[in-house]
Specification:
Oligomer: single chain
Largest sheet: 10 strands, mixed
Length: about 350
């Protein structure tokens, strides 16, 4: 349900004139607090890339506005200190810029002239839809990939979303704020990471985001934004299931079996046929996970397989009603296993 004309006029909006036209392209900026990494003075790292045809930029800095100027050429907050106090956050900050959209013409009726921007009310609905689609393609794999690569550090690193802004700009450079655009506004141990290592993690995350399965990144992203331990655990376990079955399906089983099993020459035909038939019998997640670890997930160790076995046991206990929620250590463990699978060579 939208606001009435009466309400809008009392908010300072006026009907636009017949000869009044506005065109703008839109972009979004997500601001995150990077929990688990201690900030260093003057820190500023930035990068850019393309995922599924969507352009994005990333910046990490000890200053919110410094990062914003890197990705969006403007400050994120008028008063950074007051903003950080309001959001109860601390550096470093990670900002992700997505866009811009194509140029769109205003279709709504109401505008309000501001000192810094022109405000409109639901005047750029097609632009909002285009931007939402762009965000859906870029944000889940980016945030998931960043969490996976940062997860290789000694202590747990979390990306806590602080704010999400959507901004439009006219060809003349005027800022447009379309009222009605959706905005979204654990303890941790910080660790010191030198900028060169942080840049390496950022580069690795960008590479991972570009190849990450949309189905996996969607559930991984849902898990990262979930505060309920049960839902977080199940979302992450679902990424393990999807990744395992997809990887198993893509394996050349005949080739891999020949590499692992040496058949005596005297029973070569029988032995080869026997071993080649085995993967067709492996239907369980446990069997397929182990086969993937033996053949293509060369970065996994016995410890990783044991960790998977432990989290699968917890998942089975939940499914059978034996426990109502996973223990905290299981949530941390499933996140490590899910993250490591995404880092497969």
């Amino acid at each position: 349900m939208g606001l009435s004309h009466y309400a809008l006029e009392h908010m300072g909006f006026r009907r636009r004139r017949e000869d009044e036209h506005l065109s703008a392209s839109f972009f979004s900026v997500y601001a995150f607090e990077v929990q688990g990494i201690s900030s260093s003075p003057g820190l500023i790292l930035d990068a850019s890339g393309v995922i599924d045809g969507v352009t994005y930029k990333i910046a990490i800095s000890d200053s919110l506005n410094t990062a914003a100027r890197k990705v969006a050429l403007d400050d994120f907050a008028d008063d950074e200190q007051a903003w950080t106090e309001e959001h109860k956050c601390a550096p470093p900050y990670l900002l992700i810029y997505v866009g811009p959209t194509a140029m769109h013409s205003m279709s709504g009726e109401f505008v309000k002239e501001g000192a810094l921007a022109v405000e409109t009310y639901q005047a750029f609905i097609p632009a909002r839809r285009e931007l939402r689609d762009m965000e859906g393609k870029a944000i889940p794999p980016l945030v998931s990939a960043l969490s996976c690569t940062f997860g290789t550090l000694q202590h747990v690193v979390r990306l806590r979303e602080l704010e999400h802004d959507v901004i439009g700009r006219t060809p003349e450079g005027r800022m447009i704020c379309d009222f009605g655009v959706e905005f979204r506004a654990e303890g941790h141990v910080s660790q010191s990471v030198v900028p060169s290592d942080l840049q390496g993690l950022l580069d690795r995350a960008m590479s991972l985001a570009a190849r990450m399965s949309p189905k996996v990144s969607r559930f991984y992203s849902l898990a990262l934004n979930e505060t309920d331990p049960l839902k977080r655990f199940l979302y992450l376990f679902l990424t393990i299931e999807r990744q395992t079955h997809a990887t198993f399906k893509a394996i050349d089983h005949r080739l891999r079996m020949a590499e692992l099993a040496r058949v005596p020459e005297r029973v070569n035909a029988v032995g080869t046929s026997f071993f080649e038939a085995q993967p067709e019998k492996w239907k369980s997640l446990q069997e397929r996970f182990i086969w993937c670890a033996l053949t293509v997930w060369t970065h996994l160790t016995d410890s990783d397989v044991e960790s998977f076995t432990r989290v699968k046991k917890v998942r089975d206990q939940i499914a059978h009603g034996e426990i109502a929620a996973p223990p905290p250590e299981a949530v941390q463990l499933v996140e490590r296993v899910a993250g490591k699978l995404q880092l497969a060579p």
